[in-house]
Design a protein that fits this description.
The chain is mostly helical. The chain has helices spanning 2-10, 45-57, 61-115, 120-139, 142-157, 160-197, 205-215, 219-234, 239-262, 267-290, 304-343. Helix 3 (61-115) packs antiparallel against helix 4 (120-139).
Amino acid sequence: MQALISHSLSSQPPLLFSTSLPLRFNPSPPRFPTSRFSTSAPVRRRSIRPVIACISDGGGGTGDVSVAGEAAEVKGELESGSIWKQMKEIVMFTGPATGIWISGPLMSLIDTVVVGQGSSVELAALGPGTVMCDNMSYVFMFLSIATSNMIATSLAKGDKDEVQHHISTLLFVALTCGFLMLLFTRFLGSWALTAFTGSKNMQIIPAANTYVQIRSLAWPAVLVGWVTQSASLGMKDSWGPLKALAVASAINGLGDILLCSVLGYGIAGAAWATMLSQIVAGYMMIESLNQKGYNSYAISVPSPKELLTLIGLAAPVLVTMMSKVTICAIYSQSSLKELFSRFI
């Protein structure tokens, strides 16, 4: 038995560490080859944490969750700077764009303030006159929305020739609608004002009709200005239209003071000042668009397919705007009738 045990012990492989030699530990850290690790550029801890998570989990599901969390955190940190940049761009664009939509009611308010210092009948007539002019123009707001949509889509594709074609066809539609509005106001303006104010307030119809007839001369320029303004907005330029409308508001204010207060033209002077300011604004918007490399004086007739595309874009907006205008007109009619019966 003793011989068998000694034989089995002698047949075992030699141990890795010999018990006869003392163990020595090197207190210095191990050195890695310089070709793979550089002491001048330390390894980021964030880049190895997903690997540690995978190893500690042993390939299970929680490691994948940790990796996804780390990836989302890194992505959020990288995009935080771009978010602030985008917010700044939005503010820089929407600030001037807000002033664009304020300029229209501001012109009517300037007319009301100046005319109100004169005749009370003209002040009463200014109510239905401004409501009719503003509501008729709001019906064609679909031109602005369709223009912004089509121009922005073409610019996203990088096709400037298509942008120029859209501008030319939309200018034709704007001019056509503007002249139709002019003819409607010329022949049916008095009838529309009478239906709006009622037969009991016939004394204000002549003054209101004078105001509407004069302002109707600017309808083509107004709609052309809307198309060029929306084209500039589709190109992310809101400063050009704002400058044009700022000049127009100044002309309207100075014209009202000169024609109404100084020369005594009353409501007709206010209408002439507003009409002139709208024509100047339309011209400045055309020139602003021309400075971007497009020809705003080129007009082309749209094809039937292009008209169908425009109708598809504009029909929902047109129905919405007509509904709003109708509701506002009904409410304004009932309010104005009661006001006129007490005021005059």
